[in-house]
């Protein structure tokens, strides 16, 4: 799968292949420069690669070459999970601000948020019902609609040294900009994600850094956490839904809508 691109772009393998649900990746070097060769095997990943090309390396990893399903990306280092929580949130907000700014030219085809959230819109009972209600409220009167990353958690913002902190692996969505900040409160890989005190503090930190109304941010956290849980349940992984369900309940309680 990789050999043709290694030859075409004069690359040397620099690590073991990585397989995900939507792509195949190989760490490589192009001369002295570390890079990542990614080949999309799902439509979602292809859309994300097109968005990376459109961003042009501003706020996101630069695309060094591309051809069909394959892109060659500059390779970053550690993620925001290695940073102090407040610092990580502020870095993420600054990165998202760069991604969301208007730029020349039309973006590639993007998925509207009302399509993206279909798995939760008809949910019934408990935190999922609260999340479904939040989606209905938020989509009824969207604010500041823009191109979205769609999956801006701590592991998708990496340290690129002199280039700063940049995003990888977007989903290619369009909708209210506040959606992009919710994953900072819902990331299941963060050790404090189900801590109520952590949730309250990061709402304050993120809303200030991103210039968002705190209540609106909490509504997006409730909406996103419920959607994440619904996806896990739909994929037959109900056990993994427990963490986002807890975050949804914390958000609902903070909003005064949950028991």
Question: Which labels suit this protein?
Answer:
2 domains; Phosphorylase Kinase, domain 1; Aminoglycoside 3'-phosphotransferase, Chain: A, domain 2; 259 residues; 45% helix; single chain; 18% strand; three-stranded mixed sheet; alpha+beta
Please provide a written account of the structure.
By secondary structure, the protein is an alpha+beta fold. It has 2 domains: 3-74, Phosphorylase Kinase, domain 1 (2-Layer Sandwich), CATH 3.30.200; 80-255, Aminoglycoside 3'-phosphotransferase, Chain: A, domain 2, CATH 3.90.1200.10. Helices cover 45% and strands 18% of the residues. The protein has 10 helices and 11 strands. Strands 1, 2, 3, 4, 5 and 6 form a 6-stranded antiparallel beta sheet that branches. A hairpin with a 5-residue loop joins strand 9 and strand 10. Helix 7 (179-186) packs across helix 9. The model has no long low-confidence stretch (mean pLDDT 94).
What proportion of the residues is helical, as a percent range?
A: 40-55%
Q: Average pLDDT value?
A: 94
From the 3D structure, determine the CATH topology of the largest domain: Aminoglycoside 3'-phosphotransferase, Chain: A, domain 2
Strand content: 15-25%
Present the secondary structure layout:
Blueprint: H1 3-8, E1 12-13, E2 18-19, E3 23-30, E4 33-40, H2 43-55, E5 63-67, E6 70-74, H3 85-100, E7 111-112, H4 113-116, H5 118-121, H6 126-140, E8 145-148, E9 157-159, E10 165-167, E11 173-176, H7 179-186, H8 196-210, H9 214-234, H10 242-255
Parallel strand pairs: 7-11
Antiparallel strand pairs: 1-3, 2-3, 3-4, 4-6, 5-6, 8-11, 9-10
Helix pairs in contact: 3-8, 6-9, 6-10, 7-9, 9-10
């Amino acid at each position: 799968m990789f050999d043709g691109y290694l030859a075409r772009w004069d690359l040397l393998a620099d690590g073991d292949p990585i397989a995900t649900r939507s792509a195949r990746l190989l760490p490589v070097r192009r001369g002295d420069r570390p890079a990542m060769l990614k080949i999309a095997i799902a439509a979602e990943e292809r859309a994300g690669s097109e968005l990376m090309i459109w961003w042009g390396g501003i706020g996101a990893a630069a695309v060094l070459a591309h051809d069909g399903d394959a892109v060659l990306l500059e390779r970053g280092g550690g993620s925001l999970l290695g940073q102090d929580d407040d610092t990580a949130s502020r870095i993420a907000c600054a990165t998202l601000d760069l991604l969301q700014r208007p730029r020349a030219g039309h973006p590639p085809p993007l998925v509207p948020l009302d399509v993206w959230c279909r798995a939760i819109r008809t949910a019934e009972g408990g935190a999922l019902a609260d999340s479904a209600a939040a989606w209905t409220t938020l989509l009824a009167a969207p604010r500041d609609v823009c191109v979205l990353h769609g999956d801006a958690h701590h592991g998708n913002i990496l340290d690129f040294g002199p280039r700063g902190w940049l995003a990888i692996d977007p989903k290619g969505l369009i909708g209210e900009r506040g959606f992009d900040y919710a994953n900072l409160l819902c990331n299941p890989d963060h050790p404090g994600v189900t801590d109520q005190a952590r949730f309250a503090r990061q709402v304050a930190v993120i809303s200030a850094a991103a210039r968002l109304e705190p209540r609106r941010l909490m509504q997006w956290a409730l909406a996103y956490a419920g959607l994440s849980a619904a996806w896990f349940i739909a994929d037959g992984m109900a056990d993994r839904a427990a963490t986002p369900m807890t975050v949804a309940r914390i958000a609902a309680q903070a909003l005064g809508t949950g028991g």
